Amino acid sequence: MAHPAVLLRSHRSLGWTAEPVQPAERFSAPARVRPSWVYGPVEPTEKSRAHREPTEKPTEKKGPYMQQPPPHTEDLAARPGRLRAAWQVAHEPVAGVSRRMQCVALAVVLAVLPSSLWRLPIAFDHGIGVGERAYVVFLSVLSEALAFTAFGLVAQWGEVFPRWLPLLGGRRVPTMAAVIPATIGAVLLTFLWTLLAPITQFMGRTIRGDVLPREFPGEAGGWEEAWFHLCYAPLVLWGPLLAVLTVAYWKRRRTAENAPAPA
């Protein structure tokens, strides 16, 4: 082994400098790598704690479809609520309408419903043209729509125009603007279904005075004739019931108009 002096000269000749090494730097180790089973657990400092636990948590990024539900899903969820609200607005009676008048308005719709349903299967018979099928369906829908107007004589939309109507939305319905059409309708329906239809059916004649054809449902006999009379018999009540609602509507509106204004 070479002498230390010889090694020192060789190092100096090569340009190396020998710097003294402190014993403490040679054997000391960072505190964070000291094994806990030798020195015990090391308490974390404020600096190390701040480094390990960030003050603000990173926000979780979501895709565009995860931030909010699709628009059509919200529309489907809100649709039942809208239909329920529209049903309540159309049928909810105003103040002063008795329970009896509500039942009368409902009876008008139910009186027209059987005959409307009876006509629908005719639209699907063989040998009927497209125009005749459309006429049968239109007649049934129109009958129910006219019968539904009876609720206007007990509901709010019969006294105040709905807001979705252009130019008239939110305004008061004039009393005579509802009473006159309802009165004309009650008179015509009473004459047609309460008086004329039963008399002509009993005499075997049409409204124009012709003899009823043998294929007429009221002359078919058996269960077909019975089913026809059962579905059309409630129409006898359409006109009288509408007349009762019209009189009650007129009295209620007149009483409200003549009532003194609150001080």
Q: What features would you describe in this structure?
A:
The chain has helices spanning 4-13, 23-27, 36-39, 46-52, 64-67, 71-91, 99-119, 130-148, 175-203, 222-232, 238-258. 58% of the residues lie in helices and 0% in strands. The protein has 263 residues and is mostly helical. Mean pLDDT is 78; it is low at 24-29. The N and C termini lie far apart (124 Å). The protein is globular and about 65 Å long. It contains eleven helices and no strands.
Rounded average pLDDT: 78
Helical content band: 55-70%
- Principal-axes shape call: globular
Question: Which runs of at least 5 residues are low in confidence (pLDDT < 50)?
Answer: 24-29
Measured by DSSP, the beta-strand proportion falls in: under 5%
Write down the Rg. Answer: 46 Å
Note the main sheet. Answer: none
SSE topology string: HHHHHHHHHHH
Rounded to the nearest angstrom, the distance between the terminal CA atoms is 124 Å
Multimeric status of the protein: single chain
**Number of H- or I-type helical stretches:** 11
- Give the total of beta strands: 0
Class by alpha and beta content: mainly alpha
Search tags:
single chain; 263 residues; mainly alpha; 11 helices; globular
Task: Offer a quick outline of the entry.
The chain has 263 residues and is mainly α. The protein contains 11 helices and no strands.
